[in-house]
Amino acid sequence: MPEALKVEISESPSAWSVVVRGEIDVDTAPQLQDVLDGVMEKGARLIALELEHVDFLDSSGLRVIVGASNELRSRDGSLMLGGASPAVLQVLEITGVIDQLRHPERS
């Protein structure tokens, strides 16, 4: 059984930080979705998503990340990746999601 997803949230005047640890997959992506939705509902316009301690990311997790990025953009905000493990970075690069996050005007 996979380890539970661990998420730490902190708020500052300029941005919210969401630090994720564990695996983001079909079982844990809804938890990340709930966290990001909750932060946005509290008024976050800039979220730094820290994925340095994420060991695995599947398409469910990608969908959550892209969806949060799109939602923030629609609110004149943005999602920034503050760090990504090598495994996550590889998935983001192969799928082209990293380019979408770097160049949001293209989506």
Q: Indicate the proportion of strand residues.
A: 25-35%
Structural class, by secondary structure, is: alpha/beta
> Which stretches of 5+ consecutive residues score pLDDT under 50?
none
The secondary-structure element order is EEHEHEHH
Shape: globular
The count of strands amounts to 4
User: If strands are numbered along the chain, what order do they take across the biggest sheet?
Assistant: 1-2-3-4
Percent of residues in helices: 40-55%
Average pLDDT metric: 90
Major sheet size, sense and barrel closure? 4 strands, mixed
Assembly state here? single chain
Amino- and carboxy-terminal Cα gap:
36 Å
Description:
The structure is a single chain. The chain is of the alpha/beta class. α1 (29-41) packs parallel to α2. It is globular. Strands 1-2-3-4 form a four-stranded mixed beta sheet, covered by helices on one side. The model has no long low-confidence stretch (mean pLDDT 90). The protein contains four helices and four strands.
Give a short synopsis of this structure:
The protein is of the alpha/beta class and 107 residues long. The protein is 42% helix and 32% strand.
Provide the fold topology:
Layout: E1 6-11, E2 16-24, H1 29-41, E3 46-57, H2 59-74, E4 78-84, H3 86-95, H4 97-102
Parallel strand pairs: 2-3, 3-4
Antiparallel strand pairs: 1-2
